[in-house]
Design brief:
Elements: E1 2-8, E2 12-16, E3 19-23, E4 28-29, E5 34-36, E6 59-63, H1 65-74, E7 88-91, E8 103-106, E9 109-116, H2 121-127, H3 132-139, E10 144-150, E11 152-154, E12 160-164, H4 172-180, H5 185-191, H6 199-211
Parallel strand pairs: 6-7
Antiparallel strand pairs: 1-4, 1-7, 2-3, 5-11, 6-10, 8-9, 8-12, 9-10
Helix pairs in contact: 5-6
């Protein structure tokens, strides 16, 4: 498991549909060591802190293995690292093999998996396709977010070591499916008890249970 690229970007203004919007989805690779803080990487930022960023979404991770899939789906390739808005482009960390609550050491930092990504309309702007967020969700190749347990420097090329894994947890792919495609009551009951799950996603499953 390897950190292939570190990608950062500060929010920028742009026009979409005749309206001015502000987005931090445009990320670009940076060279050398980068300090990972509890809320973000040096040089990185989010535009709408109501739904992006924060301690439970300090870093967004996307598997490089999915780049080839999207090249085929979209009929184009040559995607630069950070194309999908990710901070960490990684290898060897697919969603079905990463559980909520897993803890990894990357460089001098220690991080924990908190939730999958749910794409917003700004992702469609980034990809030049307003329907892309729906396609992204349907493919369930979402990547995942991390909270920072220990701050420290990271650098592209760092080996990623899993230091804690609960085999009884749910993987990232199953948690995304459960929220967006539905599942059994037993699955929801299991999800609300997952150590490490972000409070916002836990609240969704609690609501599903209350309404079922």
């Amino acid at each position: 498991m390897t950190l292939i690229s570190i990608n950062v970007g500060l929010p920028r203004e742009m026009t979409h549909g005749g309206q001015a919007i502000r987005t931090g989805i445009f990320k670009a690779p940076v060279a050398g060591a980068v300090f990972l803080h509890c809320l973000n990487l040096d040089g990185d930022g989010q535009a709408d802190l109501r739904v992006h960023g924060g301690a439970d979404k300090a870093v967004y991770v996307y598997p490089h293995e999915h780049y080839a899939f999207w090249a085929g789906e979209l009929g184009r390739d040559g995607f630069p690292y950070g194309q999908f808005g990710e901070n960490f482009t990684v290898e060897g960390l697919l969603e079905e093999a990463v559980n909520i609550g897993d803890v990894f050491r990357i460089g001098a930092a220690r991080v924990q998996v908190t939730q999958p990504r749910t794409p917003c309309f700004k992702f469609g702007i980034r990809m030049g396709d307003e329907n892309f967020p729906a396609r992204f969700a349907a493919a369930n190749r979402t990547g995942f977010y991390l909270r920072v347990l220990q701050e420290g420097k990271v650098v592209a090329g760092d080996i990623i070591k899993r230091v804690a894994h609960d085999p009884h947890s749910l993987c990232v792919r199953d948690v995304f499916r459960l929220r967006h495609a539905g599942g059994t009551r037993a699955e929801c009951e299991r999800a609300v008890k997952l150590p490490g799950l972000s409070p916002s996603w836990r609240a969704v499953f609690e609501k599903q249970l209350a309404e079922s």
